[in-house]
């Protein structure tokens, strides 16, 4: 398929710069795949579309304060370091800007968000094919433990910030209330709408709530730059499906309940596991490069709760596939739904409103 087919225009003012005042106070567009109908609701109305026996599958990966600032130890030049993946304690792959000045052997003194040096150095130890730098940290037992005081939440580039006050708010709101294992450099944003109270009310109604883990990488929000989808190389992400989650999902499926993925990352875990186990979902861990686009058949997911995604992104292609499984018609149907959402002044992207695809 042609990448340009997944482009659309969006007024800049519809890109949400801040979260809704209340997590569960956003809007909810409900898209019915069988009829193609659209309903405009509030997120709290999600209760009305779930039933006892269904199971929600949420990604509990925790966003780390992955953006670091540093100065060249020799020249004083400024660097931005965005941690990508941990190789081991104090050993990370990272995106460093400006990259041309981050040659092997370059030493950087890390600074806190106020620009004060922290007594920790980052040393460039190598480069990979993607242009990422291998960074070794010195002066800390483990840089992970220093991130809360030195790092910044890695907000997407379409969200702009000035001043430490709003950045502190993002530490709370660009994180799900159920976040567990640290490792993501972007939030699983569909989960940002949930509160502990809301999840409790779902459980009281007999809706199962289980957690999987997929550490969200840099490529999640990146646009596809190849002319065709088939030429795109998907980023790789680590995932875990626990025995508890696998058992609860299996029980729900056996009893006729629906598996509702909260976010494209949770869906990618389910479909990655199902793809290599003939539709079954056994517990386990792995790495996935699954790239979902029309005409995809889904083996493990019955409904999807998600946000509104960037033009020409792999996430938009995924929801287009889910809008009409096994057909290419989903692209037209989903872009029409996006156009209606824009006319209705929905808020788009990470801090924006939600969509339920049934």
CA gyration radius, whole angstroms: 21 Å
Elements, N to C (H/E): EEEEEEEEEEHHEHEEHEHEEHHE
Tell me the name of the CATH class of the largest domain: Alpha Beta
Number of folding domains? 2
Number of strands: 17
Within CATH, the superfamily of the largest domain carries the name QueA-like
Q: Write the CATH fold name of the largest domain.
A: QueA-like
Count of helical segments? 7
Walk me through this protein's architecture:
By secondary structure, the chain is an alpha/beta fold. Helix content is 21%, strand content 27%. The protein has seven helices and 17 strands. The chain has a nine-stranded mixed β-sheet. Strands 5-6-7-10-9-8 form a six-stranded antiparallel β-barrel. A two-stranded parallel sheet has the order 4-11. Strand 5 (67-72) and strand 6 (78-88) form a beta hairpin. Helix 6 crosses helix 7. The longest helix has 14 residues, at 330-343. The two termini are 25 Å apart. The model has no long low-confidence stretch (mean pLDDT 95).
